[in-house]
Amino acid sequence: MTVPLLDLRAQYDTIKDDVLAALMEVIESQHFIMGESVPRLEGAIAGLVEAKFGIACASGTDALLLPLKALHLEPGDEVITTPFTFFATAGAIANAGGTPVFVDIDPETFNIDPAAVEAVITPRTRAIVPVHLFGQMAAMERLLPLAERHGLAVIEDAAQAIGARRRMDGAWRHAGAVGTVGAFSFFPSKNLGAWGDGGMMVTSDASLAERLRRLRVHGGAKQYHHDEIGINSRLDTLQAAILLAKLPYLTAWTGARRAHAAAYTAAFEELPDVAPPVVDGANEHIYHQYTLRVPRRDGLLKHLKERGIGCAIYYPRPLHLQPCFEPLGYRDGQLPETERATAEVISLPVYPELSEAARDTVIAAVRGFYQ
Ligand SMILES: Cc1ncc(COP(=O)(O)O)c(C=O)c1O
Asked: pTM of the predicted model, to two decimals?
């Protein structure tokens, strides 16, 4: 039995009627730009995460770029982030005119280490961009006081964490709605994926929401009148309609991901070599990825691939050692936990439609390699 890493076709089969009907409505209306599905989706996502405002945009990358542009970074302004993430997190910082400052991760959760953040804050620091990697939130209750003390914006990269929650001060708080702004991605492989690119910013700051709305349409609140320089980053009405049709399924999909994760973790308990994901006690993980830490990782990757089992390395090369960031002067060995993670992680299929038989096939293959 072969098992893909992700099976969007299987999902399509279960939602086809709802999504196609929603698409046909947009097509009949011919209202492709900022049609009524866009504000409806903005309200729905803001409601889901308990933020006041949602501002849709063209991608998760732009959902990071636009709030960073809103900071009007000057050359030399620093933005602290994690090097263990998808490139967009740091690319957006550089594209907004800032200098990414990379700090090491917590080896258990793979998320940014707040103590390391504190150590690199300088008078040039303007913002922190924590990433809620693989679907569990960073230690926001430790980052927020730092940001407050130093007057920094906190832009949450929640691209992989829609619906994830963290218990803070006795209350559940949603990924994206804790910092100054949260950024979501609707890339097709995400837990809530469009049929193309898409993104969403959320915030509870009314004036910031207004600015972000302007910045996504070339900086103009009124047509042909531009207060500042923005970009063209709207979400297509078609994508918004697809996402609205898919949204009612999200809770069940997350439940299925969590059930797969629990079954994997129980099965791997007997394998001393295999370290299942560690869930921080304050977190509710939504398992965008189910990521193991293992010895002989490349051997396992080859073993699984030879058996037709989808798996992937997120991420094989840390951002501080990417060629494009060479001018920043980071060296091999400088962020050891990140570098160790890039050598040890492997992500397994955890998509909601994964069958029990397929899951058992994955478990047997991992067992076969280590036993
Ligand atoms: C952590 C992270 N940040 C940002 C992005 C960028 O999102 P997009 O691909 O929608 O531009 C992604 C996903 O691709 C991501 O995983």
From this structure: 0.98
Q: Are 250 and 346 spatial neighbours (Cβ–Cβ below 8 Å)?
A: no
Buried b (16+ CB within 10 A) or exposed e, 194-217: bbebbbbbbbbeeebbebbbbbbb
Does any ligand 1 atom lie closer than 6 A to the CB of residue 191?
no
Both tokens of 85, joined, read 């993430």
Q: Ligand 1 centre from 29 Cα, in Å? A: 30
Q: Are 154 and 204 in contact (CB under 8 A)?
A: no
Per-residue pLDDT of 86-106, as tens digits, reads 999 999 999 999 999 999 999
Alpha helices, DSSP H, located in the chain: 8-29, 37-49, 60-70, 88-95, 114-120, 140-150, 206-215, 237-246, 250-268, 297-306, 336-344, 356-370
Return the DSSP state at 217. Answer: B
C-alpha 184 to ligand 1 mean position (Å): 8
Cβ–ligand 1 contact at 197 (below 6 Å): yes
